[in-house]
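So, is this right?
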Amino acid sequence: MSERIRVLSVLNKLYRGGHDNRLLTLARLIDKSNFDHRIVTVTSEPVRTEDEQRAVGSLRPEFADHGMLVHDLGIAESNGESAGVNRTWKAANELRRAVRQLVKYIREHQIDVVDAHHTIAMIAARMASAITGGPLFHSSYHIAPWKRRFMTLLGKMTLGGADAIVTDSRFRGQEISQWLGAKAPPIHVIPTGLDIPIPTRSADEVRNELGLPNDPNLKIV
């Protein structure tokens, strides 16, 4: 059997949300015989028990339930205390540290492909891939953050520098392509998959509970 492809997904944080939930579904269903899938977050979480993590919406315990430990790059989450030049300088230093740590991780674990989510993680992954020379694709489901003041040029450099972009609908794909223009890399539309739960109760039980007639032609979906 050929060696598994090492895929590294990079995010800012790992709390319940669109990107994060999609990634959890991927982690649960990915073919582990062909892919070695790893997760890295840019920011670190405060030290918490597993129950506390679940209470605040952290997905780390759920990734651990599926045999995936999450590594973080050790960047403290911004608390908004600094402002102006100080805040910009601090953000630049933290981004530099994140890129350095990400390059180190990619090289140590011989990552084949980097999959970046979220704005800061995409920027860090773009810089790291330029250093390591490995392929990079962005999972982007909208471009609203890049349309903010002072972010447009950075966004076009970040998204436009990827080897490919993955999004979840044709509309979003067209939006990203038009926004990037001639610099747009290949864009692939992959609809969000759903892991449909297996019923644990019979249709008759549900009918009785809801007070519905026991009619075999009545479908419960």
